[in-house]
Design goal:
By secondary structure, the protein is α/β, with parallel strands linked by helices. Helices cover about 30% and strands about 25% of the residues. The strands form 2 sheets. It has a 6-stranded mixed β-sheet with strand order 5-6-7-3-8-9, sandwiched between helices. It has a 3-stranded antiparallel β-sheet with strand order 2-1-4, covered by helices on one side. A hairpin with a 2-residue loop joins strand 1 and strand 2. It starts with 11 loop residues before the first strand and ends with a strand.
Length: about 220
């Protein structure tokens, strides 16, 4: 697999008093903290508490209003973005393409040999015959597995997951836990927004609770 050299991989993310304001709405209020490899960093909180905004700030699609997000080692914006694997609320796949074609396209966009990349992820995410149908014909759980394969096809060092177990059955959650354990073992920085941290019991984890844009105990 064509991956970045170690000095271009994200090894730690540091929040330095990160604040985000949208008009009159304050979404994040001076968050500081460090996300390092080792545990899955589980971000929990009520709807509207700022969880997804935080992922957007870490994933470079949202520039903080105040403070900054720092990446270690120091990387350019392009280098950070090349290292992000993102699974958002939306699957971010083309519904009229097959699952296979979505993954092949993502691999090509990252400059990878597409067919070997597909061969690596199809078994890892248990992508069966449904991946050869248009994504719009797949169930929510099947689309979620395709989306995870698309998000991780390039072996990113910074993994951002927003409610990744949505739509997954028991087998799908088991696959997700196995993949997370593999990402941890590979020393990735993994942030996961979840309403159900108990579903991931047994994984090394650190819980970050956010309420109205602030960390709480």
């Amino acid at each position: 697999m064509a991956t970045s050299s170690n000095n271009q991989r994200v090894q730690r993310v540091v929040l330095d008093r990160v604040g985000c304001v949208f008009g009159s709405t304050v979404a994040l209020r001076g968050l500081s903290g460090e996300f390092e490899p080792g545990p899955v960093h589980m971000i929990v909180g009520a709807n509207g508490s700022g969880k997804s905004t935080l992922l957007r700030a870490v994933g470079t699609t949202l520039r903080p209003t105040t403070g900054q997000v720092l990446y270690q080692p120091a990387l350019t914006l392009a280098q950070v973005r090349a290292e992000v694997g993102w699974l958002s609320h939306e699957c971010l796949v083309y519904p009229d393409l097959t699952g296979r074609d979505n993954v092949l396209l993502a691999a090509r966009l990252y400059g990878l040999p597409a067919v070997p990349a597909w061969e690596r992820v199809k078994d890892r995410f248990s992508l069966g015959r449904f991946a050869d149908r248009p994504v719009r014909t797949n169930s929510r759980g099947q689309r979620q597995r395709i989306a995870m394969a698309r998000a991780l096809v390039h072996d990113p060092s910074l993994v951002l997951l927003d409610e990744p177990s949505t739509g997954l059955d028991e087998e799908g959650v088991g696959t997700l836990k196995r993949v997370l354990a593999e990402e941890i073992a590979a020393h990735k920085v993994v942030l996961m927004v979840t309403h159900d941290p108990q579903s991931f019991a047994g994984l090394p984890s650190r819980l970050w609770r956010i309420d109205r844009g602030r960390w709480v105990d």
